[in-house]
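S.,

Sequence below, as promised.
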Amino acid sequence: MNEVLNNPALPAFLLASLVLAATPGPGVFYILARTLAQGRRAGLSSVLGVALGNLANAVGASLGLAALLEISSLAFNVLKYAGAAYLIYLGIKALGARSTVATAAFAKADPARLFRQGFVVALLNPKTAFFFAAFLPQFIDPTAFALSQSALFGSLFVLIAVITDSLYVLTASAVWPILARVNGARGIARYLSAGVLIGLGVLAAVSGARSTE
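The prediction came back faster than expected:
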């Protein structure tokens, strides 16, 4: 811990992490989709699940997972397509739900299930491990123990992301009751949520493809 606290690059790391975490990306869109479809509790459960998945990727990057994925195209593609398929599956499942079911789900979202889904979505994104492997070393003091610094910096980034993602959820859930008064708004939210999940899955499948040869 002292290695990180005494690191002169810590302020720069915190600022960069805040900017990166607050910038909307696939993780934020996934969390917002869950919030609009099922409410604040669902959004916050998804935030925690995604955070744990990201933390696992940060630890994996610290232990060399990113290096393994770099030399194994097969491992990268297996993770990438599994994650894409899971997102598309969640989107189709949301799309097939009837309006009455969607309304009930909005009020009675299962936090444990949504937590698990968020964890799997984040864990099956190999690009997260690459991000940590590329981002964290920029702030590590080479004269100190690199593994502990990398793990602590990764944990700090995930904590900052939890805060910014939670703010997105709270903002969306505060605005949603006003929008929900509009006729058909819940149905629109269901289709929007499904569209975002399927879109994220397709984007994950077609972006950054690597040859297995």
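The longest helix spans residues 146-179.

Coffee later?
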